[in-house]
Structure formats: C-alpha cells, structure tokens
Amino acid sequence: MSTAPSAEEQFDEKASQQLEAVYLTPDVIEQRERVLALLAPRAGEHALDIGCGPGLTTAGLAHAVGSSGSVLGIDIAQPMLTMAARRCASLPQVRFDRCDVNALSAADERFDVALASQVYEYVDDIDAALTELARVIRPGGRGVLVDTDWESAVWASSDETRMRRVLETWNEHIPHPQLPRTLKRRMEAAGFRHVHVAVVPLLNLVYDPATYSVGMMTLIGNFAAGRNGLSAADIAAWREDARHMGDRGEYFFSLNRYVFMAERG
Q: What's the confidence (pLDDT) of residue 11?
C-alpha cells in the first residue's frame, strides 16, 4: 500500500483553488482543448468526467454533447465538486457526484465516452479501477485517460541537485508517478482495445505566473517543504532561483502529458 496522501487529503479548499488557477493558464487550456478534440464527444452522447476537478472539462463535455446528451462529473474532493457545480450551474445536462473511482455511481454500460485527466496516478489499485471504468462504458464506447510521468520533466535550475530533490519529493505525492509506462497494458487487461497513445507537451520558456510550471511551484513547494530534508528556506530558494532564471532569459520547463485513447471491447 502506498504511503502517498490521498487525493481527498491533498485537495482541500485552498489547494483546490490553487489548482483551478493553474488549470486556467493558457497552456493548460490549450492542453484541455487538444484532449477533448482527441476524445471527440458528439451531440447526444452520455459522458463521464472522472476526477472532474473544478469542472472545466465537464463544461467542455457538456457543450459538445449538447442538451440531448448528458455529463456526470465525479470527484473525491468536495471542494472541487463545489467549484464544478458552480461553474456548470447553467448546464442542465450536467450533474455531479462524490464517489471513488473504484465504486462508480453508474449502471453498467451507461456511458458512450469517459475522460480522466491526472486521476489514475492517484489510485492505489489501478487495475481494479480500470475494470470498474470498463464496466460503465458501453461496448464500442470510448475512453481517454491522461497521465504524467514526472521523470519527463525538464526544468532548468542553477542548482540541479536541489531541483532533482524537489522533483523526486514531488513524485511521492502519488502512488504511481510513472504510470504511463504501464497504462497501455493495464487498459488492455481491463477490457479496452485499440489503445493508442499520444503525447501532449507542456512547454514554458518564460517565468510567468500565468503558466503551468510557475503556477505549480506553489503546490509542489507546499508538498515538498518538510519532506526529505527540504526546508521551507530550500523551497523559497528554489522558487527565487526560477524567478532569476526568468530575469536572465534562461527559464525553461517542459513536461509530457501522455494521452491514452481506447475503445471498450
């Protein structure tokens, strides 16, 4: 059993608001649009948004399926659901539920499409969760899962040792920080077929609060401070160094999102 804190524990009201701000940065908006385009939801379809967070993807799904379709957004963190419900209040085809991915609140073969972004890496028993996901998608329905391997991160720093310590510590916030390496075969074992994998990179070349990487420094720093010998002063120095890298025109961040697209067998 992993010792990583649960998603419910990590996403209190403050952290949920910080993550929402990151999700509203232009580069993450572009990523979200690309993933939705790969899923290609159609009018009249019934969609499941797993780990719906603040409801941004939920709203995108709702607009795609229209009034003749439906969207169920689920999350384990109540602050996320509160934000999502507020964001989607004018969309009657949307409803939300608080539940775990190992016990989805839906009948067998209920959905035409399902989408989960940065969800399964938080789940201890991934194979059971994927089997549960397959249960609620109709045969021939589509599933898209997005997850990150944080070892794909390239983050310029004048102190590479400290940078590695921060990222290695951040890996501990989830049970499966390298999930993309095994996700294809896990999906196939759970009943999905025709699993295709695409890469959606995040690239930041300037130090700007309105980017994914700078926005994530708060969440990463809050988690890493006090772990593995990293003090609050270490984290402050890391963040200040990144700002100075930006002042010198040397800021560089790149991270791969891996998108797994499959059909329910």
A: 81
